[in-house]
Design goal:
This is DNA polymerase eta. One of its GO terms (biological process) is response to radiation. By secondary structure, the chain is α+β, with helices and mostly antiparallel strands. Among the domains are: 229 residues, MutS, DNA mismatch repair protein, domain I (3-Layer(aba) Sandwich), CATH 3.40.1170.60; 49 residues, DNA polymerase, domain 1 (Orthogonal Bundle); 114 residues, Dna Ligase, domain 1 (2-Layer Sandwich), CATH 3.30.1490.100. The protein has 18 helices and 20 strands. The longest helix is centred in the C-terminal third of the chain and has 28 residues. The N terminus is likely disordered. The chain binds a DNA duplex (9 and 11 nucleotides) through strand 15, strand 16, strand 17 and strand 18.
DNA sequence: GTGGATGAG
DNA sequence: CGCTCATCCAC
């Protein structure tokens, strides 16, 4: 696709309409005459005429990460290897004609002195990924953790450098930056006289701003005038570090040749607008931050700062099925070809919402830049199996490897927030060339998320997905294990129970130890009716109740430590009661049941749950004392705390897609 | 909630 | 291209 904007026309004489798409449709709102209202209010969102957005990405990011990590001279050619392929090639290496997806051998042939770093990997049992010269894809899994961490550092610098800007991490090496607010602030700082509407202004706050000062585009990078968008500059004029700082969409006079810097003040005409000023300030801020990142972290970046159009093929959303569908529907191959289709025609065919696509085709992208939560909603670890696996044990092996990665990543994320809780765990497998199938299950909140806990669930899901093997042969070519629905647990309550309550068949009730009764003496005893039934087929599950019995070495003292604690305040030994999982419960009676039927969860998992429950019990017991103090006068039960999903915006008002949407039309709904 | 599909680097 | 990652959405 190319020929972006081939139908656009700029009008250097008009202050109100900067370009038109063919004759009839115009986009007046993009670049109106800027008034005091435009400047002094900041409430127009993506229709703000002073809106400036930048996209900044790191150059050959993975390669740069390795270069920085190893303290290698950035001028040396370096590639990052993943098995037999390359996943990153730095600029010096590109000079040798090496490109991504070259085979490693070819790359070395082209450049014998090439620095080759294999991406970090780990195998089952490794506590963390490591850098090895020749990891085996049959035993190891790639880890991108280091790159994720470095990425976060860069995002952090954007945020610190632009406290009032909006930063949206777009990928591991890219971020969208909304400069609209910082630019406004800067304009008011530099031109304070704009801060008040002059008394003699003809239309009050709706009067146009006075003419802008001349702009120096010097040192702001490469400027891409709007005229040139069909023939944009190439990167040959980049700074020496290979990075670029482009600004696009400035409604400039014709004096600036694409890719050249005229090196100074724009005194060419009277066509400079406040719109241009905004763009130039953003470009300047962008450059400053990029330099800071380079100096502090060692990463070079490229940025494109645009008011509304971007050069070359930089159109989002058309790279996938939508683009293909459009091309087929209209039997065209370039964006330019689609510009002949009028808005009316598109809307008649695809409904009102297709204006979104119509604008995208014209380089107008009104998407909001919105900061994403620091923690992502999901985490996925996956492994392609060059040699398809055929046995359940092999599956368990990979599940453990993937579980190790998830454990590592979740625990690392928890360094920032202890209450992080993935509500769901999912196992995907791909059999041969079939599409993926998956199974998921609730994941309990556990303070210690270990490989064993995760793998326990993974194995359970595996059995649901492929069975225990034997009878039906399989050939699995990919295994993925993921957490989803990551949110935070509020004041760490009632979590295990919530999880187990959904498995009524395994509810068991068992008081442990002779002192169990004494536990109920301290706080009030549960009056809830209890089921006295034990699990009938106890061989089916390794539930908590079996633990003390299974382990013959388990002395009484050990058992005490595992299932109880002594409260400092009341000097009571407080016991963990394994009982009915659902329903209400008193402050002192922690309830835990075994998990799923079958040998679904390992003993170790139960152990983790037990420890978790014990920790919860301590908190609750402390709460009990606290509540007693507070509520001495009132005969009220201790307020129950409730689990509340943090991102619990239950999307009730989800728009129903029109059932008439068929084929291509379904792409046209508003994003 | 579950499971599949999509887009992106 | 092969691999990895995250989100969306119909059911």
């Amino acid at each position: 696709m190319d020929a972006l904007g081939s139908g656009s026309v700029t009008n250097p004489q008009s202050n109100t309409t900067h370009w038109k798409a063919k004759a009839s449709e115009d986009f007046n709102d993009l670049t109106p005459t800027i008034t005091y209202r435009h400047l002094l209010f900041n409430n127009l969102g993506s229709r703000d005429p002073l809106r400036v957005i930048a996209l900044c990405d790191s150059d050959a990011f993975y390669a740069a990460c390795e270069q920085v990590r190893l303290g290698i001279d950035p001028a040396l050619p370096l590639v990052v290897q993943q098995w037999d392929s390359l996943i990153a090639v730095n600029y010096p290496a590109r000079k040798f004609g090496i490109s991504r997806m070259d085979k490693i051998r070819d790359a070395k042939k082209r450049c014998p002195n090439l620095v080759v770093v294999h991406v970090a990997t780990y195998k089952e049992g490794d506590a963390e990924p490591g850098y090895w010269e020749n990891p085996d894809t049959l035993t190891h899994k790639v880890s991108l953790d280091h790159y994720r961490r470095e990425s976060m550092k860069i995002i952090q610098m954007f945020k610190e450098g632009l406290p009032t800007g909006e930063i949206e991490k777009a990928s591991i090496d890219e971020a969208f930056i909304d400069f609209t607010r910082p630019v406004r602030e800067e304009i008011l700082k530099r031109y304070p006289y704009l801060g008040t509407v002059p008394p003699d202004a003809p239309n009050g706050i709706d009067s146009p701003l006075p003419p802008p000062p001349p702009i120096s585009w010097d040192g702001k990078g490469t400027i891409v005038p709007i005229h040139s968008l069909t023939n944009p500059p190439k990167a040959q004029d980049s700074p020496a570090d290979g990075a670029e700082n482009e600004a696009s969409g400035a409604r400039r006079g014709s004096s600036l040749t694409p890719g050249q810097d005229d090196g100074g003040v724009d005194d060419s005409d009277d066509s400079t607008t406040w719109h241009d000023v905004a763009l130039s300030i953003a470009a300047e801020l962008m450059l400053r931050i990029r330099e800071d990142i380079r100096d502090k972290l060692g990463y070079t970046t490229s940025a494109l700062t645009a008011s509304y159009k971007k050069p070359m093929n930089q159109i989002r959303f058309l790279g996938g099925k939508l683009g293909k569908a459009l091309a087929e529907e209209y039997d065209v191959s370039t964006v330019g070809d689609l510009l002949t289709i009028s808005l009316d025609e598109m809307q008649r065919k695809f409904g009102e919402d297709s204006i979104w696509v119509y604008e995208i085709l014209r380089g107008i992208d009104r998407s909001e830049v919105k900061e994403k939560p620091v923690v992502t909603k999901s985490m996925l670890a996956s492994k392609n199996l060059p040699q398809p696996i055929t046995k359940a044990t092999q599956g368990y092996h990979w599940i453990r490897v993937l579980a190790a990665e998830l454990a590592l990543r979740l625990n690392e994320a928890r360094e920032g927030n202890l209450a992080l809780w993935p509500k769901t765990i999912v196992l995907h497998i791909r059999q041969g060339y079939e599409t993926f199938r998956s199974k998921q299950s609730a994941f309990p909140f556990t303070r210690n998320v270990t490989v064993d806990v995760i793998a326990g669930f993974g194995e359970k899901l595996w059995r649901e997905l492929v069975g225990t093997g034997g009878s039906t042969p399989f050939k699995i070519t990919n295994v993925q294990l993921s957490f989803s629905g990551i949110g935070t647990m509020e004041s760490g309550q009632r979590t295990i129970e919530g999880f187990l309550a959904s498995r009524p068949s395994t509810k068991v009730q068992l008081d442990l130890g002779p002192e169990a009764a004494s536990a109920s003496k301290c706080p009030s005893t549960s009056k809830r009716k209890r089921s006295s039934s034990h699990v009938e087929n106890s061989h089916e599950s390794a539930t908590l109740q079996e633990l003390p019995l299974q382990n013959s070495d388990d002395t009484k003292t050990e058992r005490d430590a595992r299932f109880s604690f002594i409260c400092d305040k009341c000097r009571q030994r407080i016991w963990l009661k394994l009982g009915d999982a659902g329903g209400a419960r008193d402050a002192n009676a922690s309830t835990v049941a075994g998990a799923d039927g079958g040998q679904e969860l390992s003993v170790v998992l139960d152990d983790a749950i037990r420890e978790d429950a014990l920790a919860t019990l301590r908190l609750e017991h402390a709460d009990f004392h606290y509540a007693q103090k507070l509520a001495a006068s009132v005969d009220e039960s201790i307020p129950r705390r409730v689990i509340r999903p943090v991102n619990g915006v239950a999307s009730t008002a989800k728009k129903k897609r029109k059932t008439t949407d068929e084929g291509i039309a379904r792409f046209f709904s508003k994003k």
